[in-house]
């Protein structure tokens, strides 16, 4: 069983930055590929970013956040981060982190790939 706890959300203005954190339980965090998803009101949960397991040398981003968001991991702290810069009102959503107990496959953007989910943290960007 893996427990994921997100933090760092809040209310910011357009153009501001936020860093989300996701702390994972367990001693095998480095073995998990990790992802961030988001869900806006009335919309389906969508892929944001993913990072490969171990040293995290491979990462992927949704086109809508590429160049603005950066995913990273610190295995010593069992934590994955999402640095969000140049935030836009359309980034407003609940952000979820997720753990994939396998290597990061070609379907890294698929919700069904991930085995465990956090409870989410709200990000609100005002214009």
Summarize the structure.
This protein is mostly beta strands and 127 residues long.
Sheet having the most strands: 7 strands, mixed
> How much helicity do the residues have?
under 10%
Helical segment count: 0
Q: What is the oligomeric state here? A: single chain
Spans of at least 5 consecutive residues with low confidence = none
Number of E-state strands:
11
Mean pLDDT: 96
Description:
With 127 residues, the protein is mainly beta. The protein contains no helices and 11 strands. It has strands spanning 4-7, 10-13, 18-24, 33-39, 46-51, 59-61, 69-74, 79-84, 93-100, 116-117, 121-126. Strands 2, 4, 5, 6, 9, 10 and 11 form a 7-stranded mixed sheet that branches. Strands 1-3-8-7 form a 4-stranded antiparallel sheet, with no helix packed on it. The N and C termini lie far apart (40 Å). 35% of the residues are buried.
